[in-house]
Amino acid sequence: MATTITWTAGPYRYETAGKGFIDQVEWRVTGTDGDTSDSSTYGSVSLDRPEDSDMVERATFGTKANLVTAIKAKLGADAVTAAEAACEAAVSAVKAPVHSYAVAES
Q1: Residue 101 lies inside a defined structural domain of this protein
Q2: Is residue 103 part of a domain?
Q3: Is the pLDDT of residue 1 over 90?
């Protein structure tokens, strides 16, 4: 089964005046393969401030879909690919571990 990758936008910081520019957003990448999942790939980005005339109101811009699009654009294609690959590798490691733990018997 293939790993399904899902990007989510977490909490964000915004200006309290004007259109409420969102300048910082937390993100997380979750990989799921059957009943196995991993969400240890995450971070935060600072978004570039657009011109006031191009800025969208926070109430409109602050959706999960819009924020994920902005996060991926800010990270760039190489970083997005690397985050998704790291997530897939983490899911694979959980599904087929190469190490385990035990306690010595008496």
Answers
A1: no
A2: no
A3: no
CA 91 to the chain's CA centroid: 15
Q: Hey, what are 21's tokens?
A: 């520019």
* pLDDT given for residue 97 in this prediction: 84
89: tokens are: 């590798």
In a domain, 16, yes or no: yes
Q: Where are the beta strands (DSSP E) in the chain?
A: 4-14, 22-33, 36-46
Mean pLDDT of 73-94: 95
- The DSSP symbol for 52 reads G
Q: How many structural domains comprise the chain?
A: 1
What per-residue string of b and e applies to 27-43 under the rule 16 or more CB within 10 Å gives b? bbbbbbbeebbbeebee
Residues 6+ apart with CB under 8 A from 75: 45, 83
pTM exceeding the 0.85 threshold for the entire prediction:
yes
Mean pLDDT of the 25-30 span: 97
- Domain enclosing residue 19, as ranges: 4-95
